[in-house]
Amino acid sequence: MTINDTILYDWRSEPRNLEGAFAPSTLRAYVSDTEAYVGWCKANSVVPFPSNVDTVCAFLENEAPGKAPSTVRRRLYAIRKVHRLLQLPDPTFDEKINVTYRRINRAKLTRPKQAKGMTRDYLDRFLAVQPDSPWGLRNKAMLSLGYELLTRRAELVALTTDAIEFREDGTIRAIIRRSKADPFGKGRVAFTSLQTAQLVRDWLAWRGADVNFLFCPIYQGVAVNRHLSTTAVKRLVKNSARACSLEQGEVDAFSGHSLRVGAAQDLLCLGYDTAAIMRAGGWKSIGVLARYLELAEHNVWKI
């Protein structure tokens, strides 16, 4: 279908109708993926909405060489969502499109990239290099709490002060209220060790009681009442790795997700079963957990 064959639809206002129903990151992905599709359609003089099977297949095949299959699939989902929002016939469930995506997926032999796990050995080293300052107090508490709660970086920076409870035994009971796997905020409960609880106490003693978010920025030596960005978690992990004088390749392998990956791998090596690890990290799928554990240094034959 060419531009002259049909009218053009204004799709940009439609994703805003989804605000509150989806995570902001999901909405941003819908917009960016749709922009990529619309740009390709413009360059090829075809109409993006309503589309047809051949146009969608051609777009997916064009994206495949430089993109991971998961990115191509995400592009497909965005095209599907905007067609539905515009109340247009949706061509994306056609078997030809399914076959096209399977062909793209099978052609990619690379495995999904996994962040390097910040296991206990790394955690101890990262804690040891933090400065003797308010920033150091915050960094130690963030690293240790993120590891033991197995948080994603967005979950860690979203924690509020009232989400943690110091228990009589000296540990912390935390409620992670919203996560990637829990979009409706039912929450999951997780616990910490005595050591981590003490690091959080030390940070809170300096931070004070008038801040809503558990971890906040520090400006000119004063705690600021707002949450950190997710990038701050990634930066903390990588800066800690550099401070330990790790090789650049190893530093590059770490990310903000390394806390969750490393803790899961440690739990496996400590002998915890799948149910216990899934509960600790809030996983709903054994298949997803298996990806986290596949690089763990866990030799079942070692006695």
Quick synopsis:
The protein is mainly alpha-helical and 303 residues long.
Task: Give the SSE order as H and E letters.
Answer: HHHHHHHEEEHEEHHHHH
Low-confidence stretches: 1-7
CATH class of the largest domain: Mainly Alpha
Q: Mind describing the biggest β-sheet?
A: 3 strands, antiparallel
What form results from the Cα inertia axes? Answer: globular
Rg over CA atoms: 23 Å
Question: What is the oligomer described by this structure?
Answer: single chain
Number of helices: 13
Number of strands: 5
Strand content range: 5-15%
CATH superfamily of the largest domain, by name, is Intergrase catalytic core
Class inferred from helices and paired strands: mainly alpha
Helix content range: 40-55%
* Count of separate structural domains: 2
Q: Write down the CATH topology of the largest domain.
A: hpI Integrase, Chain A
**CATH architectural arrangement of the largest domain:** Orthogonal Bundle
In whole angstroms, how far apart are the ends? 66 Å
What labels would you give this structure?
303 residues, mainly alpha, DNA polymerase, domain 1, hpI Integrase, Chain A, 3-stranded antiparallel β-sheet, 13 helices, globular, disordered N terminus
